[in-house]
Amino acid sequence: MSYLDDPRVYFAAERTLLAWQRSALAFIALGFVVERFGLFVRFFNLTNQINPMHSAISAFVGMSLILLGTSLSLLSAIQHKKFIKSLSNAETPPGYFLCMSSLVGYVIFFGGLLMMLWLLSGFLI
Fold first, then answer.
1. What is the dihedral of CA 41, 42, 44, 45, to 10 degrees?
2. How far apart, in Å, are the Cα atoms of 24 and each of 35, 66, 106, 111?
3. How do the pLDDT tens digits run along the chain, 125 residues long?
4. Which of 35, 60, 69, 113 can bridge 24 by disulfide, Cβ–Cβ 3.0-4.6 Å?
5. Contact criterion met (CB below 8 Å) for 55 and 122
């Protein structure tokens, strides 16, 4: 708990949360690219010289990165929500929708989960 009684404390916490969310999105995007690269390699395997294990490894690494990004998004949103509850009234800006930044984290989390389910459904069929 801080004793600054300044709304800038909240805005600093919000900037930190959004930096974590940006990192989570980067992990999710990188995981998607890595997973789709395995599909690209399988598609253009004209000479059948590429080991099929490479595409499985690509799928595993891609899914792991997506899972890392989604969990990072969820954990940072939960941590931010806990921090908001510890602030005093003087530290929260009046008339400001305090849940919006945590809501962004939850949306990124559910979007990442839906992406993983979509990729898994294409992999299992």
1. 100
2. 16, 9, 11, 11
3. 556 677 788 888 999 999 999 999 999 999 999 988 876 766 666 556 666 676 778 888 999 999 999 999 999 999 999 999 988 888 888 888 888 888 999 999 999 999 999 988 876 65
4. 69
5. no
- Which pTM was predicted? 0.82
Tokens matching residue 24? 């989570």
Tokens of 84: 């908001």
Q: What are the DSSP calls for the chain, one per residue?
A: ------THHHHHHHHHHHHHHHHHHHHHHHHHHHHHHHHHHHHT--SS-S-HHHHHHHHHHHHHHHHHHHHHHHHHHHHHHHHHHHS-GGGSPTT--TTHHHHHHHHHHHHHHHHHHHHHHHHH-
